[in-house]
Design the sequence.
C-alpha cells in the first residue's frame, strides 16, 4: 500500500471505523466475557456446572474478577478528578464508602429494594460531591486536599462510632446485608460477574466520552493551567464540580456493588488507606489515562492477591516498595509509558517483521494502530 | 494613629476570628468547675504541644521545599518505638548497634568507592554486569549473616515475652531482660567480618550502578583532583570501630543501662531517636525526595509509599497490638507525700500527680509535655530568627531559587531541614509515648491533627503552626470534657453530650469554617 490511502479511510463506513478504533476495548470485552468458560475448561469443569454456579476454580476466579471490576470503577472515578481535572483529593474513599454504607443500611435496616436504593446512592453521591465542592471556590491545591482528608476522616470515624452500631456496625463492619435473590453473589455469581463487567465497561465508555466532550476538555485545561482556563472565560468551578459529581456518583455505585457482593462491609473502605489504594492503582496504570486506571486496578488486586498468598503478612512492605519504585522509575505508569513509546514500539515491530521476512521493504502490519 | 488603624483594617478578619475564638473559649470555660477549668486548659496545652512538635517540622519542610511529607506521622511513630526500645529494653538497643554501625561503615565509603571506580576505567560490558553480581553477593552474604546475628529481642507471638509484657514489667520496676543470645552456627569473627565485608561490597555496588548510569548517559563525571575523600574514610573507620567496640562491651553496657535510672534512659532515648530518625530523614531526602523536586505531586505519593513501608516495618518488628511506655521516674512517684501539694513536695517525692483545687494534675502529661513543647517552640524560633541557618531557611521559604543564586548551597540546607524536621517529629514521638501509648496508627492520627492545625494556622507559617496546634488541642480536650458533663442547650430537655466521634469532627468543622473565611489560614501568606 502506498502512503496515499488516507482519503479512502475517511470514506469508510463510520460504524466500521468506530469498531476499528476501539479494537482493544472490544477484544477486552470478548476476553472478559469468555474468561469464566476458559477457566472452567482449564480446570476440567463441565459448562453445565459452571452455568448452575457450582463451586469450583472458575467460581473462585469470578469472585476475584468481580473485585477487580469494582476496584476498576473506583480507580477510574479517582482518575477523573486526579488525573483529568487535576485536583488532589484525599477523601475519595468516602465516595465509595457512602455508596456501600447507604446500600447496606437501606437493605438491612429499611428493607428497600434495589432500584430505590440505587436512586438514593446516586442522590447521596451528588450531595457528597457538593459537600466536597463547598470550599472549592476558595481553596485550591494542597489545602483542598487537606479539607477532603478531614471530611473523609470524619465520615470514617462516624461510621465506626458506637452510637450508630445498629446501622453501621461500628468497627466490625456492616453484616447481614441480604442482597436481592436475582443478584445474590453466591447463588447467581455468573450473572453478577457479567453485571459488574458490563457496569465497568459502560462506565469506561461514558468516561471516555466525557473526557472527549467540550466539558471534559475544559477539565483537562483546568489541570494543565487553571489561570489560563479562567482567563479564556471558563468558570472552572462549575467544571470541577461536574467532574466531582460524576466521579462521586460512579464511586458510589461501585460502593453499592461492593456492598452487595461482600458479606461484610468493613469500615476500612472509607479510610485513608483505601484512598491511597486508589492513588496507587491510578499511578500503576498511568495518571490521566482512563484505561490505565482499569489496568492499574487489575495489577493492584492481582499483585496483592498473589503476594498475600505466597508471602502472608509481609506483603504490604512489598506493595509499599513497588509503590515507591513506580513513583521513582515509572512515573507515567503502565499505559502512560506504553503510549509514550508507541513510536519506538512500531520501529521494533517492523524490525522484527523484517527479521522474519528478510525483506528490506516496510510491511504494513494488520495489527498496527 | 493612622498606621494603627490601617493595620487594624488590614488584619480585620484575623482579629475578628481570633476574638470569636477567645470568646468561645471563655464561654466554654464558664460552664466548668474551677478545677476542671485548670485541668482541661492544661490538657489542651499538652495536646497542642505534641501536635505542635509534629506540625512545626512538617511546616518547615513544606515551606522550604514544597514537599508534603506524609511520612512524617510514620517517622513520629518509629521514633516513639525506638525510644521505647531504649527505655524498656536497652539490651536490645545495644545489641542492634553493632550490625547497624557495621552497615553504615560500608555505605559511608560510597564517595571513596566512587572515586576508585572512576579511576579504574572498567570496560563497558563489565561495568554493566559487575554491579549485579555485587548485588547478588551482598544479598547472599547479608541475607545469610544478619538473621544469625544475636539480637536479644522480644517475641511478638507469645504473651510472656511480648512487648506488652515487657512494657508492663518495666512500668512496675520488675523488668528482667532475657539472657543475651550468641552467634548461631558461625564464629563471631566470621559474623562480624562478613557483615562488614557485605556492607563494603554493598557500597561498591551502589557506586558501580551510579558509575554505569553516568557511563550509559555518556556524561563524564567532572573529576576535580582532590585526592581521596578523607572524611568518608574517617567516618567509615570510626563507625566500624564503634560497632566492634560495642560488640565486645555489649554485656557490661547492657547491664549498666538496665540499672540506670529511668530518667536518664529517657534522655538517651530522646537523643538516640532524634539522631537516628534525622539520619533516616537525611537519607530519604537524598535518595528519594531529591529526584522528584520538579514534580511535587510525585513527592507526595512517594512519601505515602514510604509511610506504608514504615508502618509495616514497625508491625513486623514490634507487633501490631498497642502497648505502653513507662513514664520517666521523675514523674512516676506515687508513695507518701503524693499527690503533691507544693513545689517542694514535687521535687522531694517526684510525684506523678499534683493536687490543685481538689483536682489532680498529672505532672508528666499536663506539665512536663507543655514545658518541652514551649522549649522546642522557643529553640526553633531562635534558630529561625537569630542564626545564619535560620536566615537561609526563612529566605528559602520565600524564594529558594534566589537564595541559590546568592551562592548558598540550598540542597544541603534542604537535607538539613528535612533531617531536622523529621528528627523533631521523632523526638515528639518519644515525648508523647508515655501519655499516648504506642500503637502503629498513632502517627496517622497525629499527622491528621497536625495537618488540620497547619491548615488552620497557615501552611508555611511557624507562628501559625503553634496557634493552630493550640486551637486544635484545646478544642479536642474541651469537647472531650463536655462529652462527660454535657452542654446545656436552651431548646433541649437533656444536656447535649458530644460523643467521641465529634472530637475529630469538631476540629475538621473548625478547619472548614476558618478556610472559608481565610483561605490562607490564620497566619498564612497571601499569594
Sequence:
Amino acid at each position: 500500500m502506498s502512503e496515499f490511502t488516507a482519503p479512502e479511510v475517511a470514506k469508510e463506513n463510520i460504524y466500521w471505523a468506530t469498531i476499528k478504533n476501539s479494537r482493544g476495548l472490544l477484544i477486552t470485552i470478548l476476553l472478559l466475557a469468555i474468561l469464566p468458560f476458559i477457566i472452567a475448561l482449564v480446570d476440567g469443569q463441565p459448562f453445565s456446572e459452571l452455568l448452575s454456579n457450582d463451586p469450583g476454580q472458575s467460581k473462585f476466579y469470578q469472585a476475584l474478577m468481580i473485585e477487580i471490576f469494582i476496584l476498576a470503577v473506583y480507580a477510574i472515578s479517582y482518575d477523573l478528578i486526579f488525573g483529568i481535572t487535576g485536583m488532589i483529593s484525599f477523601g475519595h474513599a468516602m465516595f465509595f464508602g457512602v455508596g456501600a454504607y447507604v446500600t447496606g443500611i437501606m437493605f438491612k435496616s429499611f428493607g428497600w429494594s434495589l432500584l430505590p436504593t440505587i436512586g438514593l446512592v446516586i442522590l447521596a453521591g451528588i450531595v457528597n460531591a457538593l459537600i466536597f465542592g463547598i470550599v472549592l471556590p476558595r481553596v485550591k491545591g494542597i489545602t483542598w486536599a487537606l479539607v477532603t482528608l478531614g471530611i473523609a476522616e470524619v465520615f470514617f470515624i462516624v461510621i465506626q462510632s458506637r452510637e450508630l452500631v445498629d446501622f453501621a456496625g461500628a468497627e466490625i463492619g456492616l453484616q447481614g446485608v441480604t442482597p436481592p435473590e436475582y443478584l445474590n453473589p453466591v447463588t447467581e455469581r455468573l450473572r453478577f460477574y457479567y453485571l459488574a463487567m458490563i457496569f465497568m465497561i459502560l462506565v469506561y465508555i461514558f468516561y471516555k466520552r466525557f473526557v472527549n466532550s467540550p466539558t471534559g476538555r475544559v477539565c483537562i485545561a483546568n489541570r494543565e493551567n487553571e489561570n489560563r482556563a479562567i482567563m479564556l472565560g471558563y468558570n472552572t468551578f462549575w467544571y470541577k464540580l461536574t467532574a466531582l459529581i460524576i466521579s462521586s456518583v460512579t464511586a458510589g455505585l461501585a460502593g453499592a456493588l461492593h456492598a452487595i457482593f461482600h458479606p461484610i462491609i468493613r469500615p476500612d473502605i472509607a479510610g485513608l488507606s483505601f484512598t491511597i489504594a486508589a492513588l496507587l492503582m491510578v499511578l500503576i496504570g498511568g495518571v490521566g489515562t482512563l484505561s490505565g486506571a482499569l489496568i492499574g486496578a487489575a495489577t493492584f488486586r492481582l499483585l496483592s492477591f498473589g503476594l498475600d498468598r505466597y508471602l502472608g503478612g509481609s506483603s504490604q512492605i512489598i506493595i509499599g516498595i513497588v509503590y515507591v519504585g513506580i513513583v521513582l522509575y515509572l512515573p507515567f505508569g503502565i499505559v502512560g509509558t506504553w503510549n509514550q513509546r508507541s513510536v519506538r514500539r512500531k520501529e521494533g515491530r517492523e524490525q522484527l517483521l523484517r527479521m522474519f521476512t528478510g525483506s528490506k521493504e516496510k510491511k504494513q502490519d494488520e495489527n498496527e494502530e | 494613629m493612622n498606621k494603627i488603624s490601617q493595620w487594624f483594617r488590614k488584619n480585620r478578619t484575623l482579629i475578628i476570628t481570633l476574638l470569636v475564638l477567645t470568646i468561645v473559649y471563655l464561654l466554654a470555660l464558664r460552664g466548668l468547675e474551677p478545677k476542671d477549668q485548670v485541668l482541661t486548659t492544661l490538657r489542651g496545652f499538652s495536646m497542642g504541644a505534641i501536635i505542635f512538635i509534629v506540625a512545626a517540622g512538617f511546616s518547615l519542610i513544606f515551606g522550604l521545599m514544597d514537599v508534603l511529607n506524609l511520612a512524617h506521622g510514620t517517622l513520629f511513630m518509629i521514633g516513639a518505638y525506638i525510644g521505647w526500645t531504649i527505655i524498656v529494653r536497652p539490651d536490645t538497643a545495644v545489641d542492634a548497634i553493632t550490625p547497624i554501625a557495621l552497615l553504615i561503615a560500608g555505605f559511608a565509603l560510597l564517595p571513596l568507592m566512587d572515586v576508585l571506580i572512576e579511576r579504574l576505567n572498567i570496560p563497558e560490558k563489565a561495568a554493566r554486569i559487575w554491579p549485579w553480581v555485587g548485588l547478588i553477593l551482598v544479598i547472599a552474604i547479608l541475607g545469610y549473616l544478619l538473621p544469625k546475628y544475636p539480637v536479644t529481642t522480644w517475641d511478638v507471638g507469645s504473651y510472656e515475652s511480648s512487648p506488652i509484657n515487657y512494657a508492663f514489667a518495666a512500668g512496675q520496676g520488675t523488668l528482667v531482660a532475657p539472657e543475651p543470645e550468641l552467634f548461631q552456627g558461625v564464629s563471631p569473627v566470621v559474623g562480624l567480618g562478613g557483615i562488614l565485608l557485605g556492607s563494603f561490597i554493598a557500597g561498591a555496588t551502589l557506586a558501580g550502578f551510579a558509575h554505569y548510569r553516568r557511563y550509559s548517559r555518556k556524561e563524564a563525571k567532572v573529576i576535580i583532583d582532590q585526592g581521596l575523600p578523607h572524611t568518608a574514610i574517617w567516618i567509615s573507620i570510626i563507625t566500624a570501630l564503634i560497632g566492634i567496640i560495642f560488640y565486645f562491651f555489649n554485656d557490661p553496657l547492657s547491664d549498666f543501662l538496665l540499672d540506670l535510672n529511668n530518667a536518664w534512659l529517657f534522655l538517651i532515648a530522646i537523643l538516640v531517636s532524634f539522631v537516628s530518625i534525622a539520619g533516616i530523614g537525611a537519607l530519604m531526602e537524598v535518595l528519594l525526595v531529591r529526584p522528584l523536586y520538579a514534580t511535587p505531586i510525585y513527592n507526595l505519593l512517594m512519601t505515602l509509599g514510604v509511610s506504608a513501608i514504615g508502618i509495616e516495618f514497625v508491625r513486623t518488628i514490634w507487633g501490631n497490638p498497642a502497648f505502653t511506655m513507662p513514664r520517666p521516674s521523675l514523674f512516676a512517684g506515687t508513695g507518701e507525700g503524693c499527690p503533691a501539694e507544693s513545689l517542694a513536695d514535687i521535687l522531694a517525692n517526684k510525684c506523678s500527680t499534683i493536687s490543685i483545687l481538689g483536682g489532680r494534675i498529672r505532672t508528666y502529661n499536663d506539665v512536663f509535655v507543655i514545658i518541652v513543647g514551649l522549649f522546642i517552640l522557643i529553640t526553633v524560633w531562635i534558630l529561625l530568627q537569630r542564626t545564619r541557618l535560620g536566615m537561609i531557611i526563612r529566605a528559602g521559604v520565600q524564594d529558594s531559587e534566589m537564595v541559590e543564586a546568592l551562592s548558598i548551597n540550598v540542597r544541603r540546607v534542604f537535607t538539613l531541614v528535612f533531617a531536622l524536621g523529621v528528627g523533631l517529629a521523632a523526638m515528639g514521638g518519644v515525648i508523647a509515648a508515655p501519655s499516648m501509648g504506642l500503637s502503629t496508627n498513632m502517627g496517622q492520627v497525629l499527622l491528621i491533627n497536625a495537618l488540620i492545625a497547619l491548615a488552620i494556622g497557615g501552611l508555611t507559617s511557624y507562628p501559625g503552626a503553634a496557634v493552630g496546634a493550640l486551637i486544635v488541642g484545646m478544642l479536642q480536650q474541651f469537647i472531650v470534657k463536655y462529652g462527660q458533663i454535657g452542654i446545656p442547650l436552651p431548646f433541649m430537655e437533656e444536656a447535649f453530650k458530644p460523643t467521641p466521634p465529634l472530637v475529630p469532627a469538631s476540629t475538621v468543622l473548625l478547619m472548614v469554617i476558618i478556610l472559608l473565611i481565610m483561605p490562607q489560614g490564620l497566619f498564612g501568606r497571601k499569594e
Q: What stands out?
A: The mean pLDDT of chain B is 84. The radius of gyration of chain B is 26 Å. The first strand of chain B starts at residue 353 and ends at 356. Residues 483 and 499 of chain B are 6 Å apart (CA to CA).
